Amino acid sequence: MFQPAAMAQSATSGAVVGTVSDQTGAVVPKAEVTLVNLDTNASQTQVTNDSGGYIFPNVTPGRYTLTVKMAGFRTATVANLSVEVNRTATTPVKLEVGGDKEIVEVTATAAAQLQTTDSQIGNTVSTDAILRLPTLQRNATELMGLQPGTANQGGSGQGAIQMRVGGALDDQNTVTVDGIDITQNIVASGVSVPTPADSIEEFRGGVTNPNANLNRASGSNITLIGRRGSNAIHGALYEYLQNSDLNSNTWDNNLIGLPKAVIHDNRFGARLGGPIKKNKTFLFGNWEERRFESAAQVTRTVPTQSLRNGILQFRDTNGAIQQFNLKSSALCGAGGSQACDPRGLGISPSVAAQFAKEPLPNVPGGDGLNTGGFFGVVPTPIRNDYGVARLDHIFTDKIQFNGSYTYYRQIQTSSLQVSMVDAASGGNLISVRNPPNRASVTAASLTYQVKPTLLNTFRFGYVHDTDNTGATSPTQAAGILNTPGTATAAGPIAMLVGGGVSSFLDSPIDMDTQRARYQADYAGYWQYIDDVSWVKGKHTANFGLQFNKIPYTHVRADKVVGSLSSLAALVDSGSFLHLTSANEPQTCGGAVSSNCIRSTDLKNWDRYYAATLGLVDNVGILTARDASLKPLPFGTNLRNQTNQYATYMYAQDSWRVTQSLTLTFGLAYGWQTAPTEVNNLQTLQIDAATGGFISGPEYLAAKQAAALQGQTYNPLLGYQPVGNAHHPVVSVDYGDVAPRISAAWNPSSSNGVLGSILGNKKTVIRGGFAMVYDRTNTVQTVLIPMLGVGFGQTITVQAPFCNASGAGGAGCSASAGSSNVGLSAFRMGTDGTLPLPTVPAVSVPVIPPVGQYSETLSFQDDPNSKVGRSYNIDLSLQRELPGNMILEMAYIGREGRRLPQAVSLSNAPYMLVDQKSGQSFAQAFDATANSLRNGSTPVTQPWFENQFPGLNPGGTSTAFLTSAAKSSFTTGDVSTLFYLMDGYRRKLSLPTYNNDQVLDLFMRTYVGQSNYNAGILTLTKRMSHGLQVSGNYTYAKALDDNVLNQNQAFFFSNSYHPGVDYGPSRFDVRHTFNAYYYYEIPAGQGHRFGGGKIVNQLLGGWYTSGIITARTGFPLIVTQGTNSFGADVAGFAQTTAAIPTQSLSASSASAYNAACKAEGANAVNKGGSGLNVFADPCSAFDSFRYVNIASDTRTGKANPFYGLPFWDFDMSVGKSTKVTEKVNVRFSADFFNIFNHHDYLDPTYSLQNPNAFGVITTSFTPANRPNSARWIEFGLRLEF
């Protein structure tokens, strides 16, 4: 948070520092040094100190002339000195004896770019490079990925900045324009307004150890300086054209024979800058519009024809396909001789009607037998309007003002939510989501140079950002579909077939929570910033204070997963509806070798069975309550209107000990208040017996301690409104003190071996340590608390019986209960009108009833949360080389501690010890599960017998549980097993293992950790002889315990021991190379290759530029499920990685083999796309086993294999033609992925889906690209 400063430079400035000496090397004190801006004639003056040193601590980036005068010496002038943002230009000046009227011009060298005052690591990109490098979005933030130490998993959002830089979490990056933070404050995935290349003067990326004033977040700091007016009139008219005629087709389209989608992208604009009053007032403006008739590739999972006919298909262990026609098959139940559908009805008429409104598969996907992929193209037109105006005014040499206003509007049709209804009859996919976005930035600054050594800068900024998802609600979609059996007195109910948390089927119109939820944001961000720079002798002191007000209103129709504010019926199994062996076929193994399925497919069988027959898992809706806890009408969305405040301050001293050594010390401090909701519509989770607040680590520790003693820990939970609790949702963390120290040594050795290695003032050795704190984003401070229990409640009818609305249809037998849901469960389209949930009355504090799971989800922030922190260290060596080049070798390290991450208070106590036998549940589970997976009969386990006395009269409890929950054992689904066991415990009048007031208890707390170490090698050639080059290589290792950014609603797979998943981070990219170049071809007038006027016009002005990126693959795991350690039933846990039994060869883009070499015991499906990352996918699949929760202390995440590598080359060719002395026309052709190289998205690997193991199904889309194919963009500019 508080880092080495480049001699007090600010977020909008650079610094100029140097020493004035005579020809003998003696320093010259009291010399007058003047710095003049070549564009505006603004000047600053300093006097050298007793050591001959001078410092200009706050210099606006641009081109300058530096003049040094001293009596008895000739006047020295450094012409065309370049000052870059957040960098120090070291400019020593040697005076010659003579008259001060004589002028000697000194040339600034590459040594001026050696960073001799701080330990920052990062690169600067100039305005010419920003305009001429190939950037498809024409957005300066696209260049962020060129920094060393970056790891980006791809994406396509404009202005997307969500990548990990230097090991920081990917929501901790910050973008400022002219010192004002424009980072989108809610989830920090992008910027509130775009940053077009024509509006930006300079780009500076910081990887680690930023300046002291860049202290609000712990990640990379992208500092942008906006273009400004000057004494000369400059401007441009421009247009960029991109369309499908210029592009290549995608690999995905070619795979299935689809033509290119027709698109047309037209970006056009104008900029103008110049003086209103010369040397006084300057104006700059830029207006840019984009009209993009785009199309997006969409893949959905749809039923195969066999599933539409009510036939389930699975493979046995020999690889043969087994078919089960549910209406007539008698291969289920005991001995595999009972009717699979005991009611003999087969596929639900409602399900069949909805399936008919979906197209048949046309690409690989799903499980390849019951479901497949449907690939299509959906039109997604985009309209963007952007404008910025900047005013600069110089009141006096000491007072300067800058003001600006930026406007942005985007109207985009999204591909996130689509309708397949027309596609089912041969038509096209249609988007049903149209999210609008509007934003603006108002900024102003006033700089006052009190005296040559004292400078004060005050800045004000207001960022306003509004958007909403524009989604079609499930109620609206249900009305369009008009599926039989969905009409009720409350209106149509959306029917989600197989649409649970981990959906295996898509609806004709996307109606699941993630795609159909309505959300709206109305965000403001007020910034008041004051910085003071004070030069005193060899010291430059810097002080700053920043105050932020963060008003925010959020409206939403969801609680992340589960119900929306629309009535919906889930036709699936897993949450409340659970199948037993009465409705399942036999699993293959032992003597059973035919008419059976693999044990790994049992859970899939259960879900396909319930979905096909139309069995209702639950009917639910999210309801809202007012401030008095009175229920609001169905369909009312949740709404929170909040305010937060943040204060930051810092002080630092940069001490130029000698001409060669600078030390910097400092301290920063800050805090952010908890959100206050205007109507107090927030609750705190409490122990209802004591009224004390629940804290995640303490609750889990108590639950684990009790389990190890053979006891349960389930205090009665309540939810206290903050107004009654007299306490905010989180306590303010006032402990964020951030020290830092750095040193920079610029040795002057010129003799001997050391002199030849280091050179005279040609090397800088730098090092620094900093403690930095995370930015707490609004998604964590506001969105999570508003999803607690009380003011928003998910109410459900859980697993209704077939007689819930009357006698039920043919074969209804509600008395069969949970032992045979095929007889008892409510069926869509067969058993009458769907039952509707009712809203219960509540009081303060809200105490959900015990034993009913009367609330599905509870989201809470830990009231004792701390702000995440990191300890950063870097050590680097910069060396000036011949040819105007600088080589830098660096080490950077980061230790992240107390990082925000969610835990599950619902995590089952899998370590619970049976007091009588001493056996733990984990031991009993592993023994039983491994027996079932091996096809043998499980041995009776003491834990099950003693914990469930009398559960199975005449038999064993072990046998009963393995029959009732066989798929939970074979697939490692500990959560579902505990859910079922709690039900049996209630029947036996025994206490449950988990809290049964709320199904899922989510709490964001502060126990995450990460570690990052990297070596960086950077070579930069400053512009000379028409060539500019910058390249960097990073070798890195990133480790964490599955910590995610704050927008991810997932918790650890094991909340008791998060360290079981400690291993390579999902962003662990070992080798990364980035480079860019810009080259003015030496032809035409004044060059070797030239001729007459016409020849010079033809040959002159050509240039080329390019960006090259390459990296090795990301770490991959084979998943076995999300509930292996009993984290939760709703599916918020991160997936558990299966454990490799042997090392896999690295994934390779050349090792394609779509089929197994031989059908084996775990045969993998043939076919698919024809591409597989493994030469022998069967052998690869057999190289993993399930986690033994009693004995394995680490999951497979500790030993991943690595995915497919990636490389890309983007190139631009252009020509600038001079029309008059001041007018140029420039044409450019930008080639993105110029070689049309195919990079593929890493496949998913799951023990639950062997048919798709390693199968490549789609190409990888890099960041800021619509797809992976080659794109060509033409540009035409008139510049003056």
Can you characterise this structure?
The chain has 1280 residues and is mainly beta. Among the domains are: 14-117, Carboxypeptidase-like, regulatory domain (Immunoglobulin-like); 913-992, no CATH class; 1096-1113 and 1207-1279, no CATH class. A hairpin with a 4-residue loop joins strand 24 (382-394) and strand 25 (399-412). The longest helix has 14 residues, at 974-987. The model is unreliable at 1-8, 155-159 and 1155-1168 (pLDDT under 50).
Low-confidence residue ranges: 1-8, 155-159, 1155-1168
Largest sheet: 22 strands, antiparallel, barrel
Level-2 CATH architecture of the domain at 14-117: Sandwich
Q: Which CATH class of the domain at 14-117 applies here?
A: Mainly Beta
Could you tell me the radius of gyration in angstroms? 33 Å
Helix content: 10-25%
Alpha-beta content class: mainly beta
Count of separate DSSP helical elements: 19
Describe the structure in brief:
The protein is mostly beta strands. Helices cover 11% and strands 38% of the residues.
